């Protein structure tokens, strides 16, 4: 009898373990084991990095259409290019949004999350993002491929889901609504108007500053890598669920939440994190700061203006340095 009870307890423990593991993957941010299993069952694996990075090594079977920040977006507005063009790119690549899709880039790269948002925005329902991306795959010692992978073309019609975004007109109406909370996912210097990347610097009145890098274990990893203070980007790994809940503890998961950055890319990472924490109504301000700052009647806190004269002077100085270096290189070669 005791042996039967023991076996039953083992079975229950096993079931709880399996269910717990499955529950951990019910969100859209998935881990290495999930990606491996998805690849085995035939999910589409989408590498959103530049083609040169992709050809240096990618997850076996992954497809690539190039750097999505370049391929899918207008270089000036930083919004999506025409729907028909994106539809043609997806269909040619075999990127069927109706199937399970795993999106990845490098570890912590917001463009992977932008890829996830792109799939969802155009009507996909089964897309997930691999936060640790190619770095996590390589760190695990798993095999990579260098030859490009191709899928058969498809014929799928993309349908924008406008309920996932907030337009310029909508944002100007709701930004000061107390039932809406607004998160600025840019750097603190951008938020305070010290780093101007549009006609004006500053932030939307009432917005809460939580830079998207705060979602990482070590938000300073990018600058540490640049200064060679660390050797890997391991610090860009996602914080634990408890840590993320603490990060956003002053927000209300039941309120409508709008996230913005410069153009919506960094915001997509924070928006996905919030959705995975159980926030019920999260949207991305589509045009983000580029759209808000360009509408000169829109109010701005910590407002500063772009000094075009100073910018031109800096560009001219940089060009002079480039000319000097090119001349020195030419002389050295001769």
- Secondary-structure element string: HEHEHHHEHEHEHEHEEHHEHEHEH
CATH topology of the largest domain: Oxidized Rhodanese, domain 1
How many H/I helical runs? 14
- The neighbouring-strand order within the major sheet is 5-10-9-6-8
CATH superfamily grouping of the largest domain: Rhodanese-like domain
For the record, the CATH architecture of the largest domain stands as 3-Layer(aba) Sandwich
CATH class group of the largest domain: Alpha Beta
Structural class: alpha/beta
Instruction: Return the domain count.
Output: 2
CA gyration radius, whole angstroms: 23 Å
Q: In percent, how helical is the residue content?
A: 40-55%
Give the uncertain stretches in residue-range form. Answer: 1-25
Largest sheet: 5 strands, parallel
Outline: globular
Task: Please report which band the strand proportion falls in: under 5%, 5-15%, 15-25%, 25-35%, 35-45% or over 45%.
Answer: 5-15%
Ends distance? 92 Å
3D structure, described in words:
The chain has 334 residues and is α/β, with parallel strands linked by helices. It has two domains: 26-160, Oxidized Rhodanese, domain 1 (3-Layer(aba) Sandwich); 163-210 and 248-308, Oxidized Rhodanese, domain 1 (3-Layer(aba) Sandwich). The protein has helices at 2-24, 32-40, 51-56, 68-71, 83-93, 110-121, 133-139, 168-174, 188-191, 221-226, 241-247, 265-276, 288-294, 308-333; strands at residues 29-30, 44-47, 101-104, 127-130, 165-166, 180-184, 200-203, 208-209, 256-260, 281-285, 301-305. α6 (110-121) packs across α12 (265-276). The longest helix is centred in the C-terminal third of the chain and has 26 residues, at 308-333. The model is unreliable at 1-25 (pLDDT under 50).
């Amino acid at each position: 009898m005791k042996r039967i009870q023991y076996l039953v307890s083992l079975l229950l423990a096993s079931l709880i373990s399996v269910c717990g593991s499955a529950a951990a993957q019910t969100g859209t941010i998935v881990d290495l084991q999930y990606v491996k299993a998805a690849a085995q069952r035939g999910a589409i694996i989408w590498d959103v990095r530049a083609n040169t990075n992709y050809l240096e090594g990618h997850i076996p079977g992954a497809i690539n259409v190039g750097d999505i920040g370049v391929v899918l977006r207008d270089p000036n507005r930083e919004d999506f290019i025409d729907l028909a063009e994106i539809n043609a790119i997806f269909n040619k690549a075999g990127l069927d949004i109706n199937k399970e899709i795993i999106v990845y880039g490098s570890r912590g790269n917001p463009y992977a999350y932008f890829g996830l948002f792109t799939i969802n925005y155009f009507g996909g329902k089964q897309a997930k993002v691999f936060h640790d991306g190619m770095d996590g795959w390589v760190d695990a010692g798993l095999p990579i491929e260098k030859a490009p992978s191709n899928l058969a073309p498809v014929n799928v019609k993309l349908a924008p889901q406008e309920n996932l975004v907030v337009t310029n007109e909508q944002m100007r109406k709701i930004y000061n609504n107390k039932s809406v909370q607004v998160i600025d996912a840019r750097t603190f210097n951008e938020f305070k108007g010290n780093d101007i990347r549009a006609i004006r610097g500053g932030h939307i009145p009432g917005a809460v500053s939580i830079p998207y890098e705060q979602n990482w274990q070590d938000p300073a990893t990018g600058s540490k890598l640049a200064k060679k203070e660390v050797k890997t980007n391991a610090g860009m790994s996602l914080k634990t669920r408890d840590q993320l809940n603490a990060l956003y503890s002053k927000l209300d998961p039941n309120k409508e939440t709008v996230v913005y950055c410069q153009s919506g890319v960094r915001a997509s990472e924070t928006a996905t994190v919030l959705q995975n924490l159980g926030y019920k109504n999260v949207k991305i301000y589509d045009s983000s700061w580029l759209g808000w700052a360009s509408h000169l009647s829109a109010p701005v806190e910590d407002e500063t203006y772009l000094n075009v004269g100073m910018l031109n002077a800096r560009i001219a100085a940089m060009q002079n340095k480039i000319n000097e270096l090119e001349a020195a290189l030419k002389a050295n070669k001769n």
